């Protein structure tokens, strides 16, 4: 059994890790941390886990965490950076859901996260945890930086087109909508029911911290710098991301076949039949990205629709997918759930 520790067990991605890992056949949950709820039985805070998780929250302690085979960080940015060096030194494998190790360009990371990076050498060592892009490197990784939620939906949608060199890489436009759980569990005005329901708005149009992360991945697919406009929106749903991706075709191709072939062996990317419109509720609770590709009126604009559950394929499910790959398990183990509908 793989001994697992989770730092940040009270947050939305933390409890989603618990929901999935509690019934993972190869996992033994050992440590679940929370500073605010230390001492409380996990199932008192999250009754959905009654009968499945009998641990209490404990305060984060690197020495205790180092007894685990793998530690997940489901914490705000900069928290993992403080503990990961000592865990890595002690031979523990780490899967970080935050953005601490996602960017290779440290000055760029420091600019977008507005703080010094305290362990650039580990950012260099880290493997970006998007299995469809980096599966082989993930197998051997000691430190995985799980891809962000918007970045997962956008990168998977553009992947076949950029790899095939079929689109103008300088004028990519990603229009993305997220549910409110994307902002985490901490209280804020913007996520109050009275503010977020019956409402929709764009935010961070001038620049969102996911822009450099998405560009980094798209650059890898294209082999050179791409030009991307990324506009996130907050929508009145709890879970889900819907990305509508625009680009200009450089040459004609059978786009449906291109997408079907690119993802034929991917267990968690579902290319829908031609003409489909994937819905966020079709991936709710599931570790799946559903994609459809359109070419309206056969003109030269391609429109890709890409949907994920931000807490599953956009975070905790994908983190476990990475763990399965790192430990040589069947990639689908424990995360092959069907979405809840309606
Ligand atoms: N929500 C989403 O859709 C996605 C989130 N992510 C990323 O995952 C990470 C977690 O997100 P989310 O679950 O939404 O966040 P939440 O705000 O819901 O939860 C944060 C968790 O971290 C713990 N925590 C906070 N500060 C510290 C600290 N200094 N030391 C130790 N633990 C701490 C909190 O518990 P306590 O304060 O009790 O210790 C809590 O359990 C973030 O980096 C986020 O960007 C990634 C993809 C999608
Ligand atoms: C709706 C909302 O607020 N979403 C968050 C992104 C979700 C997230 O936590 O980002 P990571 O994937 O990088 O961890 C935001 O825009 O900052």
TrEMBL record:
GO molecular function: N-acetyl-gamma-glutamyl-phosphate reductase activity; NAD binding; NADP+ binding
Keywords in alphabetical order: Amino-acid biosynthesis, Arginine biosynthesis, Cytoplasm, NADP, Oxidoreductase
Top-level enzyme category: oxidoreductase
Main location, first listed in the record: cytoplasm
GO term, biological process aspect, one: L-arginine biosynthetic process
Compartment list: Cytoplasm
Catalytic residues, chain numbering: 149
An annotated GO cellular component: cytoplasm
Pathway in which this enzyme or protein is active: Amino-acid biosynthesis; L-arginine biosynthesis; N(2)-acetyl-L-ornithine from L-glutamate: step 3/4
EC annotation from Swiss-Prot or TrEMBL: 1.2.1.38
Catalytically driven reaction(s): N-acetyl-L-glutamate 5-semialdehyde + phosphate + NADP(+) = N-acetyl-L-glutamyl 5-phosphate + NADPH + H(+)
PANTHER family the record matches: N-ACETYL-GAMMA-GLUTAMYL-PHOSPHATE REDUCTASE, CHLOROPLASTIC-RELATED (PTHR32338:SF10), N-ACETYL-GAMMA-GLUTAMYL-PHOSPHATE REDUCTASE, CHLOROPLASTIC-RELATED-RELATED (PTHR32338)
Family: Belongs to the NAGSA dehydrogenase family. Type 1 subfamily.
Function: Catalyzes the NADPH-dependent reduction of N-acetyl-5-glutamyl phosphate to yield N-acetyl-L-glutamate 5-semialdehyde.
The protein, known as: N-acetyl-gamma-glutamyl-phosphate reductase
Organism of this sequence: Methylophaga nitratireducenticrescens
Gene name per UniProt: argC
């Amino acid at each position: 059994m793989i001994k697992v520790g989770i730092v940040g067990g009270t947050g939305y991605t933390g409890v989603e890790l618990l929901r999935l890992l509690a019934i993972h056949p190869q996992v033994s949950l050992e440590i679940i941390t929370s500073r605010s709820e230390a001492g409380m039985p996990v199932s008192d805070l999250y009754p959905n886990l009654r009968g499945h998780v009998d641990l209490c929250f404990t305060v984060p302690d690197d020495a205790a965490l180092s007894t685990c085979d793998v530690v997940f960080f489901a914490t705000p940015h900069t928290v993992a950076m403080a503990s990961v060096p000592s865990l890595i030194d002690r031979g523990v494998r780490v899967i970080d859901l935050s953005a601490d190790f996602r960017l290779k360009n440290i000055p760029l990371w420091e600019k977008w996260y507005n703080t010094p990076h305290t362990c650039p050498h580990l950012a260099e060592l880290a493997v970006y945890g998007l299995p469809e892009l980096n599966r082989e490197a993930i197998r051997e990784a000691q430190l995985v930086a799980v891809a962000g939620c918007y970045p997962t939906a956008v990168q998977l949608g553009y992947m076949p087109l950029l790899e095939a060199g079929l689109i103008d890489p300088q004028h990519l436009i990603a229009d993305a909508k997220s549910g409110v759980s994307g902002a985490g569990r901490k209280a804020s005005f913007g996520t109050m029911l009275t503010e977020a329901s019956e409402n929709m708005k764009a935010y961070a149009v001038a620049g969102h911290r996911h822009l450099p992360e998405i560009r980094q991945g798209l650059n890898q697919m294209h082999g050179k710098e791409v030009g991307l406009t990324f506009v996130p929106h907050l929508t009145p749903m709890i879970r889900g991301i819907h990305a509508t991706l625009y680009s200009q075709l450089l040459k004609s191709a059978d786009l449906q076949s291109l997408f079907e072939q690119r993802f034929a062996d991917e267990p968690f990317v579902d290319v829908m039949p031609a003409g489909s419109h994937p819905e966020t509720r079709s991936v709710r609770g599931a570790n799946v990205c559903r994609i459809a590709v359109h070419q309206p009126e056969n003109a030269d604009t391609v429109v890709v629709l890409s949907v994920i559950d931000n807490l599953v394929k956009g975070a905790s499910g994908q983190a476990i997918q990475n763990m399965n790959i790192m430990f040589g398990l069947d990639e689908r183990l424990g995360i092959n759930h069907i979405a809840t509908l309606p």
